[in-house]
Amino acid sequence: MKAHINGAWVETKDKIEVVNPFDQSVIDTVPRCGPDEVDRALAGAVEGAKIMKSTTGYDRSQMLRRVAVRMNEMVDELARTISMEEGKILAEARTEVTRAAEVIDLSADEAKRLGGEVLPLDGAPGGAGRLGFTLRVPCGVVLAITPFNFPLNLVCHKVGPALAGGNAVVIKPATDTPLSALKFVEILLECGFPPLAVSCLTGAGSKVGDPLAADPRVRKISFTGSRDVGEHICKVAGLKKVTMELGSNSPLIVMDDADLERVAEATVATGFANAGQVCISTQRVIAVKKVYGDLLDVLAPKVAALTTGDQLKDGTKVGPMVRTADAERVSEWIDEAVAGGARVVTGGERDGACITPMVVADVKADMRISYDEIFGPAVAAISASNIDEAIALANDTRYGLSAGVFTSDLNNAVRFAREIESGNIHINWGPQWRADLMPYGGLKESGMGKEGPKYVIDEMTEMKTGYTTGNVTHIGDRRVGTGKLDLNFVNEGDIYQTNDWSALTSSEPFFAQINLPEVEYDIYDRKSAEKPRVKWMLAAGTLTGPAAELMQPLPEELLYDTRSDPHEIHNLAESTKVVHQEALIRLRAALDTWIVETGDQGQWPEPAEIVAPFEQEMHDWFGTPEWYRDE
């Protein structure tokens, strides 16, 4: 497959072979990207971020929804790609695809929910009359560095919320498993995302990951992987927003009142999925001495029944590890533990990248199989005297991603929840369980920040805080109020409505020029020598910037129009202009009625006579304008 860079699919002279970890057969090749590809990808991402920022939350939601639908249509194809390049069995790969589609669907929901809040500034000294608010805006360019063990779902956990938040994304997939990410990019483009909004670079971390992480064009980094690589990225990144989902050696505490059959079933389900290559796999089973031996007797045959082999064949329960070198490392750690007094209860035979699932008993806290992350199909059994020692052993690690306890005692369960040093806690189940909608992340050196679309979208956007002075209320697409509006800070597209010219202030004089079919009047700044000629005004308008075209006319039913009367009141919306600081700012006339007095076109009725049909309605809306006075 090709890499996707700067809006195009590209190849490089050097290739990386993607192999099936079971038999080392070559599945496909991908480009070996380097600094040139990194620079082009980021240049495109900067432009893509501008495009994405201009899209609406609704549009982004619709595109993501189409992606989720398409992924569900391609479950078998995507699952086979995952299984072939990563080694997990097909049943687990299908589950990964459906979960990934759900993550994208959840991201589509969040694209429509992205918003701010109203701040109670009147609770602060000097805050009277001020309205505060927050806005969430895109970060810009998000770098998603993803691991091999969930090559589609963990890509979606980063890319989905990033796109939902209006960002552009550069994906750096694991070198061993890039095909799932590239197929996902194909789906994104097919479903309408701008080509510049997403890039996917394949290659070594030192040649691609490091320069991407160090580049100042990247604002946000989301990384899932080992603790050591995460620390390296943080050092390289500099002043950037980072989310780190790192390693763990997850403990499962078993109390003497636990149902051992359920414990064994949970340990098998949460300790050996994906050949143990899951960040929250059950690695340390800490059982109180009263049930320690009995638990091993129940657990061992269930683990021994797990068949290992070709992940693409029906009946295989545990596939190969992703690399033969990783399987060799696991075997070395087990040998070290046995040399230190531990014993293998079942499993441990290695054939290439495959290792039969094993239970290792009598493990001590100072053994590497206990204190470090094994990331393989092995569970270490440790005995404890009581809950005090069990919690102490569970916490005796630099990691803190997930932990579980089995007990029927509510006091023990509550104590575990309060005292265990872990970001995810499970009562009466193993550590390896996650709903993709929940907040997910670790404590200590297991990372920082949370995943889950609802939570990570906050980390992939930035907050802006603003305030306005005055009493301004939003009505439909208008703001009605009597507060001060500084025309120096009017933005294109802002819409205001006011009954009071004194509410419009600026450092420079302004004037409004009203053009009636046969009469022209100038309304000058109140600081000027001229007196205002306008008597009543239900006013304001759309402030739209230079050279605005004619605004919409008043609804017919709102016009005071005698038609045959020579002194008829005309629809001013067709010809009204406001000029301020060399910019044309047009007044929109919906719900606006202006009543004017003139001496230039004959004898007009008395002002009170003109106002009468509207007086009650205007008082109901605005009260009496400050500047209304008889001449």
From TrEMBL:
Q: Sorted alphabetically, which Pfam families does this protein's record hold?
A: Aldedh (PF00171)
> Which reactions does this protein catalyse?
D-glyceraldehyde 3-phosphate + NADP(+) + H2O = (2R)-3-phosphoglycerate + NADPH + 2 H(+)
According to its UniProt record, the EC number is: 1.2.1.9
Write down the top EC class of this protein: oxidoreductase
Q: What is this protein called?
A: NADP-dependent glyceraldehyde-3-phosphate dehydrogenase
Keywords recorded for this protein, A-Z: Oxidoreductase
- Aldehyde dehydrogenase domain spans which residues? 9-465
Database matches in SUPFAM superfamilies? ALDH-like, Alkaline phosphatase-like
Q: Is Oxidoreductase set as a keyword in this record?
A: yes
Q: Which InterPro entries match?
A: Ald_DH/histidinol_DH, Ald_DH_C, Ald_DH_N, Aldehyde_DH_dom, ALDH-related_metabolic_enz, Alkaline_phosphatase_core_sf
* Family membership noted in the UniProt record: Belongs to the aldehyde dehydrogenase family.
